[in-house]
Write a structure and sequence with these properties.
The protein has 285 residues and is mostly helical. It has helices spanning 20-26, 35-64, 73-85, 91-101, 103-119, 128-147, 176-195, 199-221, 227-249, 267-284; strands at 256-257, 263-264.
Amino acid sequence: MLTPDREPTERGNQPWGGNPEEAGSRAGTPAHPWQPAFTRAFVVCAIVWIALEIMALVVGLAVVGRYGGGPIRNWDNTVEQWSIAHRGPLIGIAKVIAFAGDAPFLAVIAALVTIVLLLLGQRMRAFVPLVAYLGGEAIVFVTRQVVQRPRPPTANYPAPFAVPGVHETSYSYPSGHATAAVAVIVSLAALAVMAWPRVWAWIVAAVLVLGAFFVAWSRLVLGVHWFSDVAFGMLFGIPWGITVAVVFRDLPWPFTRSHDGVGATDTSFARQNSFARQNDENQAR
């Protein structure tokens, strides 16, 4: 029985006289096997982000109130007065924590952690903190443009009871620290537990989660946010961080090439290509 010509041709120096995409498709294997996984990951993240953004807007308009006039206002005033009256010597610690969670510095931290994880060979998992940061900051930005809640009077020194050196003048709801910073921290905690199910991973995750609560707490101590800004910010940041960690945990690496020249993501895809090729040759004989 005649066998197909396997010699390279002018069309692409590939079997069947075509390019890698054609060869892969004729063998029954997609030319880029990582694409379906990336599409699913994008869809899942987009759905969760949109759902959280809708939740943030609904809560902002119905509970917080546009410009801060919602039904939770009296409770926020009570918590703010209590926090300021009991902050004492905690201001210094709160300022350090708040600085580490500021958007520019947090972006640098997320990028550095991503680079370190890449160097450690974590591939797509390395992008977890960066995606968590970007998604969290996006929720904060969009929601603030709609709700436009002002900060507490104590957020801008030299107002009465304001902390020297603190000047927060942007919109208040939701808290960027409680949303984006908590999302980054929780994403790393979730990734540690899922990727490395060891006792030490749980210890690291517990420390990170505790740190997330300290980040949120620091905003109340400094008097730069209302309680609902922080509480609802964590409500949005925690599920976003967990979602990113779950989606990126086993996401294939798209930059590995298999031995037959067709893009593959890992050894499993390479094996699939090999099996498909052998099956094709057997049928031809």
